[in-house]
Every structure is written in C-alpha cells, then in structure tokens.
Amino acid sequence: MAPPLFLQTIEDTGLSTWLRESESPFAFYFILLFHTFGLALLVGANMIVDLRLLGFARGIPLAPLKRLFVIMWTGFAINAVTGILLVIAYPTKSLTNIDFYIKLALIGFAVWVMQRLQSQVFGEASLSKEAMTARGVALAKWSLVLWFGAITAGRLLAYTYKYLTYP
Amino acid sequence: MNFVQLHLLLNHFPIIGTLVGLGLLFISLSGKNDDLRRASLIIFLAMALLSIPTFFSGPGAEGAIKKLPGVSDELIERHHGAAMLALLFMEITGALALAALWQSREMPRPARWNRSMSAVLLFSIVTVGLMARVGNTGGDIRHPEIAPRKDGVTEELIISKIIHVFEPSPTKFAELMTASKWWWAFMMDLHFVGLVLLIGTVGILDLRVLGFARQIPLDPLHRLLPFAMAGFALNLVTGVLAFIGMDQYYTYDWAFWIKMLAIMLLGLNVAAFYLTGAFESVERMGAGDDAPPLAKFIAATSLFLWFAVITLGRYIQSFSDTISVHK
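Structure tokens for the assembled complex are given below, as produced in the milestone run.
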C-alpha cells in the first residue's frame, strides 16, 4: 500500500523543503534542538513533582511546586510548535511510522495525567498535605512511566522509519 | 595545537594527578586531617573528569602518527586497550569519591573513615597501577630508547601480562558497539534519560538560586542532586561507549570538542560553587530568601553551560568532519 499523496504535497511545499534541505543552522537541527530543550523542561520539571509525590526530598513543601507547572506548560508549548514543524519537514517519515503514533498516544496520556496533577493535587487550596500526596502517588508513577516512554518512542523514531521522504 | 600535543598535555592528569591524590589519601590516613582526605577525594574526582578528554584525544593522536616510520600499530592497540581498562577504573574511583564527598556533608565531624573511603582507597590504588601501565605502553609507541626489542614488542613484566588479560581489544569493542542499531538506539535513549535527570534537578536548583519559585526552600532541592549524578553517570557511560563505537566520527568534529570543553567548565563551576562558600551562603535559604550575587552567577553559568552541552550534542552531526586531518 503506497503512502497517501497528501504527504508528498506537504513535502513539496517551500517550508518543508527549506527545513529539510537548507544548510542554514536555523533549519532542521535548530527545530530539533528546541524540541530537546522543551522535553528537558517539561519532563525535568514534571519529574521533580513526581519524585516529591513519591516521597523523595520530603523537605520540599508541596504547595509551592505548583510554580513548576509554568515550566512544564512552557516546555509543552515549545514541543508542540517544534513538533509540528518537524512533521512538516518529514511528513512521510513520521506519519507512516507506527512508532510516531505510539509516541503521540503516550504524550497524550502523559499530558492528561499532568492536567489531573495540576487540578486535583495542586488545584484545591483547601486540601491538606496528606490528601494532596494521597491523590498524587498513582498519578506521579504513571507520569514518570509515560514521559520516559514518550522519550523512548521519540528517540526510536530515527531507527524505525520506513520512508525518509515520499518514495 | 594538534591532537598529539593535546593528548601529550592531557595525559599528565590521569597519570600523575591520581598518584598525587593517592599520596594525599595515604598521608590523611595517618593523621586526624579531614582536609587532606577531602582534598584527595576532590583530586580523584577532578582527575576522573579530565581523563575523559584525555581518552578522547587518543584517536586523533593515533591518526597523526600512524603512518610515520617506526610506529607500530600493535603497540598503539596495546596502549589503547590499556587506556580503556584504566578509564573504567578511573571513572569508578571518581564516582566513589563523589559518593564519599556527598556522604561526608551529612556526617557530623569527626567521623571520617567508613566503607566508602575503603572503596575509594582500593579502587584508587588499582587505578594508579593501571595508569602506570597506560603511560608505559604509551611511551613504548614513540620512545625507541626504552624499547629493548627490535620487533616492536617490549619485554613485559609478569604483572603487565596479567593486566593485559583484562584489557579489551579496541577493534572488537568498536565492532560490538556498532553491531546492532537497536543497541545504538538504546544507548542514545539512555543518553536522553540522563539529560532529563540532570536538567530536572540541576536546572530547577539553578532556577531557584536565581529567584524562580521562591517559596521552595533550597536544601530539599539540593538533596535531589544524587539524581543528577545518576544522570551524569548514565551519560558518561553511554557517551564513552558511543565514542568507542565511532571514534573517527567524533574526533574530527568541532561541536564534539567544544561540548567536552563545556563539560570541563561545568566541573570548574561545581568546584567554584562548593569551594568558594557560595553553597554555604545558600544552603539554608528558606521560602522567600534571595541568594547572593556570587551564587546567582554560578547558577546562571551552570544553566547556560548545560544548555550549551545539549546544543553542541545536537549539532555533532552537522559538524562532523570539520577538523581537518593532517596526513
């Protein structure tokens, strides 16, 4: 089964071609670099919250960790934008690769967990510390598993694709 | 400066530095001198860090002299294998020294000797021995005055022959690393995991020192640093293994070397943080407290350098083959 033609249409656009083929340091590698920054911020900050909820560094008061969600959502925004640009650069490579969809699914679940952490654990000002932690433990575990799963799925993209560009 | 000069300059650190560290450790055993003991641990840590670019400068030096008359490939391979074994023990010694330093923060004085220190002592002695072997085999490559036999292989002591049993074959090791793309993918994946562990802990700590999220007291964030150490260890191992797999690819790449320089500067930055009193000035920072300027400068440098490391790592591929080889 041949890949759908719309992939070739995207690849033929000026933007896609420039991202892929330009020698400029601001092309593909720059986008990929910011994708790495975004994931470092997103998963790094989320990891601190998760570790705290799982009982590490108990000296950190829970409530102020709410500030870290700013870093997380910033990282997510950077990765959403750079991610779209990366797909535009190599639409066939990403969209015909099942690993890419696995990655998107893992990210989807991880962001859902992140949302629940923010609203259920950190959202209610009246919650006692014990109540916050109790709600957070399961979410924290899933958060770590899902994010590191997403990183693995992302890293494997370079090794699992079938087509680099439209055949 | 060429690779030969770089290699000859750097190799002094792992060979002589470790000997100095061991000497200080022995001296500290006799007296009640905590400072000397701490100094020896810091030296082992610094030498472990400097051993990395030393090892990495080898292939470039090899490339420069390989084709010269009188240079034996077999002797180079022997030196290379010896270096790999010594590097392993050097990094283990460094990790043990770091663990001992970290633990000693918690301990009330004058507690000073425990299992950690015994481990450091044992591994540092082995390391010094292996480093002597590396220096010896390195000298054999280009010092005909100390090589008694004409066929290129010098007389070996019994101890050298025993050590040689444990030295890996560089060619076989390289082939092993690049045999499977899934192994390579796995190593690169672990490299990203390590990166996240580092940025998550060190990055947030730096941001707090700079004034972000002031309601978080500093000490508990600082206690998460073992995760950063685990991340660094992961990346050190995967990085060295990747280099061993494809040393020609990394050797002649500007981005790779500047990345190594950034990592060495980070080592200096960490030393500055703990040895200048900057750490003491922020250790007890509670909610709402502001850090003094020196601590903020060190934190900003740390953040900048770690993001530089990520950037340079990402651009390794673009800059491959940018250092010209003088044939």
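Residues 169-327 of chain B form one domain. The longest helix of chain B spans residues 73-106. Further analysis is deferred to the final report.
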